[in-house]
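ugh ok so i messed up the first submission bc i forgot one of the chains. this is the corrected input, ALL of the components this time, i swear. 810 residues overall. if the numbers dont match what u have on ur side tell me asap before i send this to the collaborators (the ones from the other lab, u know who)
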Amino acid sequence: MIAELGHFALVLAFAVAIVQGTLPLLGAARRDAALVAVAPPAALVQLLLISIAFGALVHLYVVSDFSVANVAANSHQSKPLVYRISGVWGNHEGSLLLWVWILALFGSAVAAFGGNLPVLFKSRVLAIQALIGVGFLAFMLFTSNPFERLDPAPLEGRGLNPILQDPGLAMHPPMLYLGYVGFSTTFSFAIAGLLEGRIDPSWARWLRPWTLAAWTALTLGIALGSWWAYYELGWGGFWFWDPVENASFMPWLAGTALLHSAIVVEKRDTLKSWTILLAILTFALSLLGTFLVRSGVLTSVHAFASDPARGVFILALLVVAVGGALALYAWRAPSLQGGGMFAPVSREGALLLNNLLLASATATVLLGTLYPLALDVVGGPKISVGPPYFNATFVPLMIPLFLALPIGAVLAWKRGELGGALQRLWLAAAATLGVSIVLLLVSDLARGLAILGYGLGLWLILGSLADPLGRAALPGGGLARFWRRLCGLPRASWAMVVAHVGLGVLVIGVTATSTGQSERILAMKPGEVAELAGYSVRFEGVREVRGPNWIAQRGTFAVSRDGAFVAEIASDKRFFVVEQRPTTEAGIHTTLWRDLYFVLGEPAPDGAWTVRLYHNPLVVWIWGGAVLMALGGLLSLSDRRFRVGAPRPARVPAAVPAE
Amino acid sequence: MRLRKRQRLLLVVLVLLLGAGSAALVLAALGEKVSLFVSPSDLVARPLEPGRSLRLGGLVEPGSVERGADGEVRFSITDGAHSVPVVYRGVLPDLFREGQGIVTQGRLEAGGVFRASEVLAKHDENYMPKEVADALKRSGHWKDGAVEAQR
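and heres the new structure output, hopefully the right one now
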């Protein structure tokens, strides 16, 4: 009964989406207020209907109703409640339902909070949003219905892939989808703007909170995914340049570029058609990501077995949505009025450079991801493109970006002065150079690349902090004045500083982990001691332990340094009884400065166990940096000048200090 | 207007420079930094020079797995027609077992032994890596039931 209710709600949502996707567009073209007024309530009804469907599926999972095929294939009564719920989106059908639900969520958020949008524009945005929904709802109803019944119903479900039974992965898809799908709003805004033929600074200001929200969620989603891969896959790495990872990284890169170019449209009324194009491409890359992950065309360490027939459907959706959008763009964009001029050395110029570099980086990642596929299609040799390719193409593009970032951030709009900018940054530059030279002297020259990484990270942090600190430390007034000035800076400026500092922290973490990792692979007998990066690791042996739905061999290690006890670390080889599948749980001891990361391997005939011991310096900085970047996004989102639905007078640029 | 033209020219030059730069990076990297996927039969039919980064895929030959004392594992990868000896030092993936389809990343050594730096078995136990399935089909040892039989 509940399953049928959910299915029925989905069908109704499909019908509502068709109405919401057509009538308002018609009304906007004919200036018919009644038709236009359909959009907001329709968006809310759609959210309600899809929420009912989503709630129904969650309910089916919680009560373990195995007469529903999806539940039977992906759940089991012995699973803890959390994982029964997260199992809802741990599979194809359920994750699509989550996708559509978030799409409706964003649509109704625009309907409910977009009070400052003109009525016509808003109805167009909602209509485009609904048309995307029509595509995905049709996809679900015709190829991947989560409510399909199974007859006869099995007594027990098949369980969920054990590596997905994990708190990190329970949170990762919703976050990632909030980001992916969030970019649908920027797409809708771009299309609505093109239809209206009016792209101006206020358009960019309306766009901004939605881009920020999506970008923040995507940042957190990718960080969660990387963190999960780090502790769950047992390889000691945090990023593998795997096609599925790239699929989420490309919209992030394009979205980051969009975030910055929208600022130029907002402040200077220029770069308009480029920004529109970016908005379209960002969502296109999100769709491409969905296609790559869901169709199984790429072999990936993260790929979940999937169905090529479904891939064709998503590919068709991709072609229609992106092709249609680009055609509209080609038709309408030339008529957009170009804005004011600016000197190459200016804030706009710097943001343009940021966009060019980020777009080139996105293109190299896209090429590397799709090249093996293209080669395979034309019957060429089978190849795999891995980290060496991305290190050789992506990294060199990031070096000028990071070098220019702190300088660009202090340049003035319209016409900046390099000299003035450097004057504000000389202390940061000198400090960075000094630390880099000291690093170079104390370590050997062969580590030059690592030092470049540390230097860039430090430059990002110091260079971003130099400006607000320098501004607050104007002569006159003591510490109290300094503090007051610091607090007086607008939140959007703080947001920028925090996000850029986060990037610096991330760069340092990535550099340290990828160049400073120590790894030892050994066969250890109980009682044996191994040395790892100054730590003594004693293997205590292996015993059996039991969890709620698994049995494990647990290897224990006692770690000490200079005779002082540091930690006891345990690594499991778990066997999930229902799924009949083993997993490895790495034993990790984290501090701010390093992770000790131990993996228990196989037993050898002589009683020894293969173990893999890693010392990963500064690895938490990677996720700390990502969290700081997301925090920057949230801070900017909370700036009242951009707040969704903020009253109109707030948009008059009141006394805003130059930033 | 002249200023605008100069500005546009500068932009075009910048875009061209960046585009050419990244294209050069991409082309250089695609030439050297990708690994070719080969099956054991490919290696026998057309020996490649040692030292090249390769991906070798196939099934773990039953009865071939030997564990050394220092964490070194020796096994053979087969596609039914031919097999290639592989040496690997490290922790094997959870789903590694005899008869399982796997992909290894590594280099061919002078004696015809493949030294693997990475062994990948897929997360999903029922899943046969696509390249492996294709290679098995080409060598004529693909049974339609093969994937089912592993469940």
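quick check: Residues 2-32 of chain B form the longest helix (31 residues). that seems consistent at least. Chain B touches chain A through 47 residues (CB under 8 Å).
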